[in-house]
Amino acid sequence: MMKRFGKFGGQFVPETLMNALIGLEREFMKAKEDESFLKEYAYYVKEYSGRPTPLYYAENLTKQLGGGKIYLKREDLNHTGAHKINNVIGQVLLARRMGKKRIIAETGAGQHGVATATICAMFGLKCEIYMGEEDVQRQSLNVFKMKLLGAKVNTVTSGTKTLKDATNEAIRDWVSNVGDTFYVIGSVVGPHPYPTMVRDFQRIIGDEVKEQIIEKEGRLPDYLIACVGGGSNAMGLFYPFAQEVDVKIYGVEAGGLGVDTEQHAATISKGSIGVIHGMMTYLLQDEYGQIMPVYSISAGLDYPGIGPEHAYYHSIGRVKYEVINDNEAIEGFQYLTKVEGIIPALESAHAIAYLMKLAPNTKKDDLIVVNLSGRGDKDIDTILNVIGSEKNEE
Amino acid sequence: MKSRITEKFNTLREKNEKALIAYITSGDPDIHTTINLVLKMEEAGVDIVELGIPYSDPLADGPVIQRAAQRSLKNGTNIDSIFHMVSKLREKTDLPLVFMLYYNSVFRYGVEKFLENCKDYGVDGLIIPDLPLEEKKELNEMMKDYAIDLIPLVAPTSEDRIKEIVSDTEGFVYCISSIGVTGMRESFEKDLSDFINKVRKYTDTPLAIGFGISNEQAIKELKELGDGLIVGSAIIKKIEEGIKEDNIEEKVFEFVNRLHEAIH
């Protein structure tokens, strides 16, 4: 298995973990060839999570935006409300195969944490989640859910107290308990083989889209759009189309308060190459390589790095990475809610906001697929605060 | 040409002594104190000093060293000010100095410029805990031109990797005494001596044991196993106490002196 995507990726981790990574790669390669494993994965994503998720023709959006035909891939309809569970089912099944009894995970917005706690509850595995103190505060509903599901939530107070630090802490836990612990990484990030493994568990999104759009339209889409933090929902959608050169692909990064400020998470647009969480990729860092604090209204996108395969797609020009800032994302959030009756996660609202810019410039017979990576219940408090303060200003 | 590290171990071996290696984070709490601490520790009997380069995201470190890095970064320490510090130190001491740092610091600074500076200012070795065998080939090749030792780390989990990790190494081999991150521990791996003996089978390079060694008792317990012992977090703890009581140098001197007596 390739350890790198071009020059991106690799295994920049303490030696203590190296044999665990090598073992994980070996088990994953075997599992991928094992019919019984694939059947088990297919069973749980279907019967437990609710796949395939619909590819919904958004007629109202299409009419109002006045360009190509818009389809939404409804990952928000998965059990636990986001695409994260596709990957968690895969990794936890692998952990069971490897006889690991203890599961750890990092989480930002909490979607990956809730998905991990859910699957661990179902399989009766011990589960600990690392979450930055700031995220614990702004995503209290998800914290409560994780606890209900029987997981221990470790509040991380080191560094910037967000996803980056939760990831550091999870890696430190793994270094200390590598014998009995399986680390379920939530995005296409981390040391090899994680970026490849998570992609392979998420590619079900793009594989289904391919099948569904051919069934509905008889051909492949012209545009794909997905939001990118670490980039797992985007990679899941993009990967099966990577070789289809006529499909134009857009990844949408979080612009926060604007890329001209220091309050954003636009890793590819504003970052430089370096090493974070075991991988070489684009990241936001200062001139001495210290990782910079990042910001987005969406707790799932404020990550200072990006999956190394995205870095590669950017470097070869296969995917265009664009930026949507907080205000535009909120607009996208409200727009989709009103026009289609679907309340999107703030992460996904970034993709919708970019759609609002792109769609009017496309042709009537173009086909556009937007990945609706998650639903917005978890973000209601955030939105309430924003809209509340807007109302006050009025 | 033999490095200062190799010469030091040769001298100690002739006297049948073990090396006491001390880790402190550069710039904790400030650069000036670090200079004084290195000189004080030399006076107290330290043989080699590891200078940590503070990093925002230190994956291999426990809370004590993380805090040290935060204090240092808060005071504006960076690689350039650390190189300057080394040049000041070199006016006063020939003690072997080793940088312990994360790969992104080297990479972002520019590998060649970084190595040039190490050579010019008198840094003798590098320990990069997030640069395993798989990732270090390029740097290893480049370092040969600079006569700086790239110190390899082996862990109790390394197993069949040990042979390749320690082959063709200079300076010393950093043997991680226990699974986990840096920090003080009550006890060590039960199979520590098996592990060290396994490493010994594949190399003549001196072996230094680190992670978790926090007091004289641990030193006495472990000193027969390796050629050197590394103490880090326990010294940083003394710095923390010293910050509160405004007597950092005395605290560290007294502690390191006790460690030195325990190892001899």
Structure notes:
The complex is a heterodimer of chains A (394) and B (264). Chain A is of the alpha/beta class. Chain A is built from 16 helices and 14 strands. Chain A has helices at 15-32, 35-48, 59-65, 84-97, 111-123, 133-138, 140-148, 163-176, 194-202, 204-217, 232-238, 267-270, 308-315, 326-340, 346-358, 380-393, and strands at 4-5, 8-9, 55-57, 69-74, 102-107, 126-132, 152-156, 181-184, 223-227, 248-256, 272-276, 279-283, 319-325, 367-372. In chain A, a hairpin with a 2-residue loop joins β1 (4-5) and β2. In chain A, α5 (111-123) runs parallel beside α7 and α9 crosses α11 (232-238). Chain B has 264 residues and is of the alpha/beta class. Chain B has twelve helices and nine strands. Chain B has helices spanning 4-14, 31-44, 63-74, 79-90, 103-109, 111-121, 133-143, 162-166, 192-202, 216-222, 233-245, 248-263, and strands at 19-25, 48-52, 97-100, 125-127, 149-150, 153-154, 173-176, 207-210, 228-231. The two termini of chain B are 29 Å apart. Chains A and B meet through α1, α8 and β11 of A and α3, α5, α7 and β6 of B.
What are its keywords?
heterodimer; A: alpha/beta; B: about 260 residues; 12 helices; 9 strands
